[in-house]
């Protein structure tokens, strides 16, 4: 695969005017460093030749040569025979072209699709600089802000109001991510032996908390095409549950979007049973080609709703910032349950997110275009290379939920690992067992990587179909570690 090329004219546009004070070469080097670190110039991109960039910038050859030398010295530029000067990251930083590695045990060259999350967006470096500039206002205190930075709470509240659920800042608390937020809600609501409604498949990182609380699960199925609402409401009526854990917005892993009518029906059943809804909205901002307005947040239909949000998908998981939106009486219970788990999210990270959300409260148009391109590349490659695997193309979210012709998900997962492809099998998402005929493929890498992932999956599937699949190690336990996102 040849390296993408950044034209000199485009490079000059991205660099812009160099600062008036200080050496010009340092201004060019700093601009390019920020562009590479920020992802606006992707790692592996071939930069213009010194001669071409000199002409495009209208600077001297010495200036551009010196700037490139600084970048090479700092690890942001690598010279490759036949490829010129290629954008890179300093040693120790995960390279985008080797996959999204979450563990040091992932072999070099593997494509890791165990994590449904994106790289940091453009503007992250500037947001971090803005956060540092704003931090003196908070340095005189202890740094423990149990409910969060007030300005960020106000921005999150405003986003809920914009989406159709009027919210004030004192109905929001900031957490260290959605998993912690959901665990806080579970601990506030449940006692040992209580029943909870859960979708299956579902995002699995709530399972350990429910196990610790010895909660009993009443599972409701989510089909590739959506929720079976009659079955769901009858299960709710018969369950005697204290809480229902739901993902109505681009459900992970199926990508389904619950309509307003369906939300109203489910909300009515929950209200009759006096059941609190704990709604994971982590992927609510990840609409791709959904026609028309988004449904109202679930809390607009059901007053007793605890909404869990996060910046991990819409902005960046590395910030580890999430939030809980609930009525003020509920927030008092949640704050009391919070302290053993989470005594306050990092202030600097909150200030970074504050800057990003003021620029774009959800997903930027550029990231949406990139995500659509990756999804479509995955869909096209699967349709061509593996037509026997079926799926419904989601209108949003980050994942494709693939159905296999046979219940061999664990075998396919291990065979794919031998081919250098990591992903999660269906049983990882099962609230009540099963799902051996399903696998999840996030489309979070560039289109070329998604196509290569399908090639590796095809090789793995051929092994399984021919009876050459590797033997299972420990049933249901993949060798590549925990499912992070």
From TrEMBL:
Keywords: DNA-binding, Pyridoxal phosphate, Transcription, Transcription regulation
Superkingdom assignment: Bacteria
Gene3D superfamilies reported for this sequence: Aspartate Aminotransferase, domain 1, Type I PLP-dependent aspartate aminotransferase-like (Major domain), Winged helix-like DNA-binding domain superfamily/Winged helix DNA-binding domain
SUPFAM superfamilies per the UniProt record, alphabetical: PLP-dependent transferases (SSF53383), Winged helix' DNA-binding domain (SSF46785)
Keyword Zinc-finger included in the entry's annotation: no
PROSITE patterns per record: HTH_GNTR
Listed Pfam families: Aminotran_1_2 (PF00155), GntR (PF00392)
Any one Gene Ontology molecular-function term assigned to this protein's record: pyridoxal phosphate binding
Segments forming domain HTH gntR-type: 22-90
Family, similarity comment: In the C-terminal section; belongs to the class-I pyridoxal-phosphate-dependent aminotransferase family.
Protein name (Swiss-Prot/TrEMBL): GntR family transcriptional regulator
């Amino acid at each position: 695969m040849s390296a993408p090329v950044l034209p000199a004219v485009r490079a000059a546009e991205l660099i812009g005017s160099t600062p008036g004070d200080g050496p010009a070469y340092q201004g060019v080097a700093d601009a390019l460093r920020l562009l590479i670190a920020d992802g606006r110039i992707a790692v592996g991109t071939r930069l213009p030749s010194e001669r071409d960039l000199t002409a495009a910038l209208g600077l001297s050859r010495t200036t551009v040569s010196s700037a490139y030398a600084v970048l090479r010295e700092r690890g942001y530029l690598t010279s490759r025979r036949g490829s010129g000067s290629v954008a890179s990251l300093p040693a120790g930083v995960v390279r985008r072209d080797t996959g999204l590695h979450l563990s040091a045990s992932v072999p070099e060259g593997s494509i890791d699709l165990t994590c449904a999350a994106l790289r940091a967006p453009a503007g992250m470096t500037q947001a971090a600089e803005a956060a540092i500039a704003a931090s003196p206002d908070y340095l005189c205190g202890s740094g423990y802000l149990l409910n969060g930075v007030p300005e960020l709470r106000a921005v999150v509240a405003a986003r809920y109001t914009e989406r159709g659920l009027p919210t004030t800042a004192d109905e929001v608390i900031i957490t260290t991510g959605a998993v912690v937020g959901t665990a806080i809600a579970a601990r506030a609501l449940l006692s040992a032996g209580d029943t909870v409604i859960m979708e299956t498949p579902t995002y699995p990182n709530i399972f350990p908390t429910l196990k610790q609380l010895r909660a009993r699960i009443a599972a409701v199925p989510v089909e590739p095409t959506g929720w079976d609402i009659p079955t769901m409401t009858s299960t709710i009526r018969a369950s005697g549950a204290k809480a229902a854990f739901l993902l109505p917005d681009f459900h992970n892993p199926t990508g389904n979007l619950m309509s307003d009518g369906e939300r109203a029906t489910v909300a009515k059943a929950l209200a009759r049973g006096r059941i609190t809804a704990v709604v994971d909205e982590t992927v609510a901002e990840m609409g791709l080609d959904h026609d028309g307005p988004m449904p109202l947040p679930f809390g607009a239909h059901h007053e007793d709703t605890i909404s869990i949000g996060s910046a991990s998908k819409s902005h960046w998981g590395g910030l580890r910032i999430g939030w809980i939106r609930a009525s003020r009486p509920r927030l008092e219970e949640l704050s009391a349950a919070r302290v053993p788990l989470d005594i306050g999210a990092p202030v600097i990270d909150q200030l970074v997110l504050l800057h990003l959300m003021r620029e774009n409260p959800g997903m930027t148009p550029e990231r949406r275009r990139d995500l659509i391109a990756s999804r479509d590349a995955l869909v096209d490659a699967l349709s061509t290379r593996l037509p026997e695997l079926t799926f419904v193309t989601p209108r949003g979210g980050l994942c494709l939920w693939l159905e296999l012709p046979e219940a061999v998900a664990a075998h396919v997962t291990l065979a794919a690992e031998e081919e250098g492809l990591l992903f999660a099998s269906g049983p990882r998402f099962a609230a009540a067992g099963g799902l051996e005929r399903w696998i999840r493929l996030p489309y979070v890498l560039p289109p070329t990587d998604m196509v290569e992932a399908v090639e590796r999956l095809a090789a793995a599937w051929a092994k399984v179909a021919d009876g050459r699949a590797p033997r299972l190690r420990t049933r249901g336990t993949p060798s590549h570690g925990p499912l992070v996102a």
